[in-house]
């Protein structure tokens, strides 16, 4: 979902419920959304109100508090997660504050709370959905069902137990695993430290093959990137050093959930993996 600069016009078609606005009663000002808040870039507007709806009064505080949520936004755990978070941390500059509707909060919470739980964090009290207005008030609401039908529903990555990294295998065994799988994706991982001292991962994916189904390579690539973000503990295990590492992730799609079942370390001189991927083009599964 994207908020346009003409939000009031666009909102009539489904986002904004017409009623009275909400204002925190503070003197506010419009400021440019800082570059550090990349989750709120390219969302349809470039200026935000300060203080914001989280009660942050300085830009330094906004940047510090929002960085803990950027990772969640990048997982795309819900189609409206960026809109929800940015409406609170970087509210659009209008004459009045506009909250997200309670229904949007509930939808985002139900989809994204499991991702937070995967990282060992509960859904915070500061985002208690009961604090937000009902849909009858002026607020940002979820998109209509008719809009959803226009978009392809893709399988979602989920929090899961990290599969063991396979280091000893034959090309025949790898081919057997390929036959039982829906996808295999070659991934290059590296990490660096951010200015805040946190670890940030660079993920490069290349789809080696898709064995069945209607998924396109770029869709599978995007889903694997999100899987690595959601299952950050697995990504951390695969990047013990700051040196780039290459893996082959193999898995299945079950009931709309994407699961990684096998992980192979792809070393430059690994003849078995290279042989398996070469033979796969002509291989016939039993």
UniProtKB/TrEMBL annotation:
Disulfide bonds: 40-86, 105-129
PROSITE patterns: FZ, NTR
GO MF annotation, one: Wnt-protein binding
Keyword Transcription carried by entry: no
Keywords: Developmental protein, Differentiation, Disulfide bond, Secreted, Signal, Wnt signaling pathway
A Gene Ontology term for the protein's cellular component: extracellular space
Domain NTR: 159-285
SUPFAM superfamilies for this protein: Frizzled cysteine-rich domain
Ranges of residues in domain FZ: 25-142
Signal peptide extent: 1-21
GO biological process per UniProt: canonical Wnt signaling pathway; cell differentiation; non-canonical Wnt signaling pathway
Gene3D superfamilies (UniProt xref): Frizzled cysteine-rich domain
Subcellular location: Secreted
Chain segments annotated as transmembrane: none
Claim: tRNA processing is one of the keywords in the record: no
Assigned protein family: Belongs to the secreted frizzled-related protein (sFRP) family.
CDD domains according to UniProt: CRD_sizzled, NTR_Sfrp1_like
InterPro entries: Frizzled/SFRP (IPR015526), Frizzled_dom (IPR020067), Frizzled_dom_sf (IPR036790), Netrin_domain (IPR001134), Sizzled_CRD (IPR041772)
Protein name per its UniProtKB record: Secreted frizzled-related protein 2
Highest rank taxon of the organism: Eukaryota
